[in-house]
Prior knowledge:
Layout: H1 5-20, H2 28-35, H3 39-51, E1 55-58, E2 64-67, H4 76-82, H5 107-123, H6 126-148
Antiparallel strand pairs: 1-2
Helix pairs in contact: 1-2, 1-3, 1-6
Amino acid sequence: MRLTTKGRFAVTAMIDLALRQEGGPVTLAGIAERQSISLSYLEQLFGKLRRHELVSSVRGPGGGYCLAREMAEITVADIIVAVDEPLDATQCGGKQNCHDEHRCMTHDLWTNLNRRMFDYLDSVTLGGLVSQQHARTAKIAVVKDERARPSSGESVSA
């Protein structure tokens, strides 16, 4: 079981959108360029995200996409489910016919993993991911600033 590019790209694109929507609607072309994701692929994903009311679209000049809900109200699980990403570790897709049309010995193990994985992704909000990005960006800026300053032993000439 693993998350496919569909789920990864959808989450990445939603973080990008959330980081930039303060300046107005965000274009898919901009997201595609910044995140190196095919524009046509993003169009498919955002169609699904719009149908699940996670994003809304603005047409015309200056148009693009905005979040349809507050960042704190959108979970990673919401995004994954919206783009039809299966979160299933069972061999049978939960149908309990994994071993010769019968339930396999490890079915409960994988079903429990599914539940815990979903619960975890449902506990992570888009707002939390955006906060992490802001903190990471601020930390990088501090490191760059410290590297640009002369060390205490160096003299600064005017």
